[in-house]
Write a structure and sequence with these properties.
By secondary structure, this protein is α/β, with parallel strands linked by helices. Helix content is about 30%, strand content about 25%. It has two domains: about 270 residues, Acetylglutamate kinase-like (Carbamate kinase, 3-Layer(aba) Sandwich), CATH 3.40.1160.10; about 150 residues, VC0802-like, CATH 3.30.2130.10. The site of aspartic acid has 12 residues, from loops.
Length: about 450
């Protein structure tokens, strides 16, 4: 008997019929003798709709109340799912994040999990019941207020529970058959990836790949929780996120979850996989904005002044570009990217610091897109950037900013050419599938 944590995303429970379909899938696991904990997201685009609703009431909803509102979405789906399961003759008990013991800090809208005390979940399992937990929410340790973990946070709830319950696997159910070399909504020729290492998955997620929440992958890596990303609309094998051996087979993954070694091809071609694949995929992100602080005096302490202001606005910055002043000038420009949602507050904080920093002008731009090429093989392969830049130039795409890590190259482009850029780069690195188009089973991609 294994303990399985399953997470179902919003598109998998978008309507009554899909709730019943998911319930049947859960029942199969329970009837096969497994202990099952289910984490569920809000139905379809409920969270976005609730945010729109709040904005119609006030443009500046208090963060505490917004969290209270948004957590209602997951309460609806958890209760309906428990009803659907009981209709199939099995016992299911639903729990809010707080009841499930998800303890967080008090940062509304972006709370971090500091402890998980799943006593009531353990009791439900011991009683033979299926436990259903509302994703994306917890309770603050200090204020006891209800918090949310940030958009897409249900993945993180699932992994945190899997770690706390010492689950055998954490299955993340979504509307595509696992992780692809690019978002199949933009690149229909995207290839399915059978196994990916946590390191690569983390770079993909942090670069905007929506398939998994970056914090969930981080958490899974830290606590060695095996992740399995699958479609709730098919029985295909999906993607395993785990460390791999020399022939590309996942290590420390319960056999029950492996495509059997005999009747399936190894995860990667045996010869080729003695080295990491050059590229695992192309991720894109359109949720970022760019700020340029122009005419910053090129003397020590000024960059610090700029980013102290940014830190006050609590923005999570990503790329930073600055050059030394050249020629006659004694001033330089600093550009950086940040979540578009933090743009207004950060601009205000920088305005306030104008006198102190002494820059000359401030520019905000929320029409940018970011493309990232990720692959562990980059470490040992020169020429990846050159190939990336020529693919973009052939597609007529202008590069505005560049940043790199050991296994990633990212560029900022105009938002309206991002899709073309992703397709061009995917093609240039020979990632296009020859086996037909990837299936997107549901969801609005919102
Ligand atoms: N319902 C929340 C959202 O849409 C959490 C999640 O789906 O993981 O962001
Ligand atoms: Mg959602």
């Amino acid at each position: 008997m294994s303990l399985v944590v399953q997470k179902y995303g919003g598109s998998s429970v978008a309507e009554a019929a899909s709730v019943k379909r998911v319930a049947r899938r859960i029942a199969q696991y329970r009837r096969a003798g497994h202990e099952v904990v289910v984490v569920v997201s809000a139905m379809g685009d409920t969270t976005d709709d609730l945010i729109d609703l709040a904005e119609r009431v006030t443009p500046t909803p208090p963060a505490r109340e917004l969290d209270m509102l948004l957590t209602a979405g997951e309460r609806i789906s958890m209760a309906l799912l428990a009803m659907a399961i009981s209709d199939l003759g099995l016992e299911a008990r639903s729990f809010t994040g707080s009841q499930a013991g998800v303890i967080t800090d008090s940062a509304h809208g972006r709370a971090r999990i500091i402890d998980v005390t799943p006593g009531r979940i353990r009791t439900a399992l011991d009683d033979g019941a299926i436990a259903i937990v509302a994703g994306f929410q917890g309770v603050s340790q200090t204020t006891k207020d209800i918090t949310t973990l940030g958009r897409g946070g249900s993945d993180t709830t699932a992994v945190a529970l899997a770690a706390a319950l010492d689950a055998d696997v954490c299955e993340i159910y979504t509307d595509v058959d696992g992780v692809f070399t690019a978002d199949p909504r933009i690149v229909p020729a995207a290839q399915h990836i059978p196994v990916i290492t946590p390191e690569e998955m983390l770079e993909m997620a942090a670069s905007g790949a929506k398939i998994l929440h970056a914090r969930c992958v981080e958490y899974a890596r830290r606590y060695s929780v095996p992740l399995h990303v699958r479609s709730s609309f098919s029985t295909n094998t999906g993607t395993i996120v785990a460390e791999v051996d020399r022939v590309g087979f996942p290590i420390s993954f319960n056999e029950m979850y492996l495509p059997s070694k005999s009747n399936q091809e190894p995860a990667m071609d045996t010869e080729a996989s003695l080295e990491a694949p050059l590229i695992s995929g192309v991720a894109h992100d359109r949720s970022q904005a760019k700020i340029t602080v122009a005419g910053v005096p090129d003397i020590p302490g000024k960059a610090a002044g700029v980013f102290q202001a940014v830190a006050k606005a609590e923005a999570n910055i990503d790329m930073i570009v600055q050059n030394v002043a050249v020629g006659q000038t004694t001033r330089t420009d600093i550009s950086f990217t940040l979540p578009a949602a933090d743009l207004a507050a950060t601009m205000a904080a920088l305005e306030a610091a104008r006198g102190e920093v002494g820059y000359s002008e401030l520019f905000a731009d929320n029409k940018i897109g970011k493309l990232s090429l990720v692959g562990a093989g980059m470490r040992s392969h020169p020429g990846v950037s050159a190939k990336l830049f020529s693919a973009l130039s052939e597609a007529g795409v202008n590069i505005e900013m560049i940043s790199t890590s050991e296994i990633r190259v990212s560029v900022v482009t105009r938002a309206d050419v991002l899709d073309d850029a992703v397709r061009a780069v995917h093609h240039a690195f020979d990632l296009d599938s020859t086996e037909g188009e990837a299936i997107v089973y549901g969801g609005t991609g919102r």
